[in-house]
């Protein structure tokens, strides 16, 4: 049956559904960038808290600033913003309908509805998942990119912004004018120091049009750092069919693993839900948690996905079942990444590697190598370059990380080893493919990409990268991986 409020009581007894009265929920959060991850993660934490009879005044209003968000809005509004969550675990699957989201704002030029919603005093948190590459930050310098076309537009048209950050600035301006305090801006993207980065984007954008407002935002608003973790594959036809088998017609179901983690700095100027009651970690030391996760899990994903794409291995679990790819993953993690990761109270780097090894190997999670390999131009600088810099500074081997970069370069040439085409898979694909093809005869062409900055000039790294890339083109991916494992 169609997923909607009216049909919740008719769902199978095997499906957990909201035990709270959704008609009495009131909004407290606007979330920008409402994809699968948010619905399986942050929205689920709030839903779980609501199941305990709390946080009914913290419901989520969804929002987006890109044209493609309109399709998701249409799907979710048609089913009262409910989402079927399918937990995929080797020990057994389960289903739950999450109901913490109650509306989805129109996607429109100028973002008037979004600005109006965020200006409402009832909205105390504005959260976002806009991907690592959505923050207009130069990956090498860390500076805010004031020259970007979108940023220049928002600086010149602050009342009709194009970006989420411009909309936040406009809403904060309205709140100040109306004598309303600021909201908390909460990034849930995979960026180290994501709160500090979000603060930088909002404050520096505001400064381009209204320096006094920028000072007020910087002084009064809060931007907590956070770390999020849950493997959430893209919605597939198989998942929709699986949902139908449960008797539910859901146009946008979400699958996820059983593991979830959310580590949050407690810096909320206008209050927050008691997320710690449903498993979130509230701490002043988000940095150590996020460094472990970004370097080992997200970095590990890149180790697997680029090799998997070249060898036509469909999913991350399939990569883990491939001795050459998984052996490469474990050796680089153990020798070149984990030595620069600090332990957290719950787990050591060695223990964390065993944890993610098991999670990546879960055959129930059909997480495609293509999805994980997407946007390497943001993910490699964010997830692998920090370990690479640390290894070079310490005088340790970086051969595995250099091979990881060579695999990325070889993948961006756009053809797998079986001759099938790799379709564009990065916002900067045209530039990457041109560099990758040039690098076949001149490896330095790849290291001249702006994302490498000074890394590309490091002789130790550059020499290792060149040798591995030549090996990939000459001997193939599998033979190159085996050569690395034999070292």
UniProtKB/TrEMBL annotation:
Keywords: Oxidoreductase
Domain Mannitol dehydrogenase N-terminal: 28-277
InterPro entries from the UniProt entry: 6-PGluconate_DH-like_C_sf, 6PGD_dom2, Mannitol_DH, Mannitol_DH/Oxidoreductase, Mannitol_DH_C, Mannitol_DH_N, NAD(P)-bd_dom_sf
Domain Mannitol dehydrogenase C-terminal: 285-473
An annotated Gene Ontology molecular function: oxidoreductase activity, acting on the CH-OH group of donors, NAD or NADP as acceptor
Pfam families assigned to the protein according to its UniProt record, in alphabetical order: Mannitol_dh, Mannitol_dh_C
Name used for this protein in its record: Mannitol dehydrogenase
